[in-house]
Amino acid sequence: MATFRLPANSKIGEGRSWPAPVGAPRTRRFRIYRWNPDDGQKPRLDTFTLDLDRCGPMVLDALIQIKNEIDSTLTFRRSCREGVCGSCAMNIDGANHLACTTFIDSIPGAVRVYPLNAMAVVKDLVVDQTHLFAQYRAIKPWLQTETPPPSDRERLQSQEERARIDGYWECILCFCCTGACPSWWWNKERYLGPAVLLNAWRWIAESRDESTEERLDALHDPFRLYRCHTIMNCTETCPKGLNPGRAIAHIKQAIARRAI
User: d(Cα 130, Cα 244) in Å, to the nearest integer?
Assistant: First the structure.
């Protein structure tokens, strides 16, 4: 699994420490990355010790309790709390996960929480996703057609055609896979990364889409697609159990078939 990489030119120091509540029989330490660009301080690790009997079972529950009861300046993204929105993606215990679906008890020892790997940090656990979504827009992730739709019904597809996008449409764009990809770390300005390429295949495989050739032409590039070296961190870390590596292989195969 991919391990956390520090933002460029940063060193993590030791931050504040909050002790366990008095008399708490079952506690756990949380070591959380903190950095505020407005205070002029270097990144640090703050330590919070929580009473697990007063905390929900997930890492996100712990973060919410810390923010509500101990340090209101702790900054992180979250929304659905159900593993659907992808907002709370972060590096937990050395691998990328959704905090809302990661059980505290699944992690031995202190729970280490950092931002997603190799991404610019906005504050604390929040990363800048501007470049990620610019790459996502570049693949035109919507249905493209030239023929007019039927006048009396939606565009139809068979059950077999619909099944072709299973395992791809479920992506929630949490970017855990992209943050875990060394090829993206090294070539992020040009390589699209596993999350975007998985979504690209979702539209190439879509039977109702009429821009397959144009989509393949746009991806047939030494960097956009072929920087993938099948390291497979992406598939291992996906919180939805998807396989971006397989999607990338399908795109390569589709391009190769055109050349035969």
Answer: 21
